[in-house]
Model the fold of this input.
Amino acid sequence: MILMENGELFVFGKTIHGNENKPTLLMKEQHIKLISCGHAFSMMLKNNGELLVFGNNYACDFGIKSSNEFVDFDAHVTIPTVLMIDPNIKSISCGYKNILILKNNGDLYVCGVNNYGQLGLGHTNNVCKPTLLMHDPEIKLICSGFDHSMVLKNNGDLLVFGNNEYGQLGLEKNKDMRITPTLLMNDNTIENIHCGADHSMILKNNGELYVCGDNEYGQLGLGHKENVFKPTLLMTNKTIKFYNSMPTQWTSENHKNCAPSFKQRIIAFVLFLKRNQMKTGLKIPKFVLFEIIKFV
Done:
């Protein structure tokens, strides 16, 4: 899903009738605030608090009860349908077949598939309507992956729950599942969190990026393909930025923060010149490099 500044919402991917192979206009609605995609369903939140859902709901993935409470392969919601209306919804996150909904007052609601405890409710039964998991005004960020979830609080508490088969919760190997929110770490320098399918990323405000979980395809970037069962430092880079489903107003200041600085561009250009010297054998006079470096 792609949301444009003018309110145009484009969608593409697999549908029950085939594939949309290019971005296709679904609607134009200037009041759309947030969007999120799950495995085979999508959600959007409007400024008035309308939370709309559409897609595959065969196991009550997004809280609209189907004709069969457990499995209904015909439970396709093919047009955006109101799940709930609440102007206090702050953030949404779609997992594989489940959702998290955070309100301004700290109420965290969950629903959907729960076979690994990814809803954190203390059991592994699917839940067919948004159900209160916890109330905590300190909740800052939420994120859900394939079958695991993470919650970050303002005091630095990072809570995890769900499947840990591959280490995606950052817990040791013998802890395969957590059906209630479990404290992974307390670190008030954590700035952002993100869940992949079976892996997770944790970003600190000093630029340290930690990864853990499934690494079969090298998706952790650590130079090997072994699963990692505790948050492990991948890199330190203060220019790293990634956003989750928290509302963010894009401004010129955001652009300045994310774009390479003038100094970074100069350094990259000097490295480019040096690499080409080695490849081609051409010599660049030292005084030329010196004049460039003076800008750094």
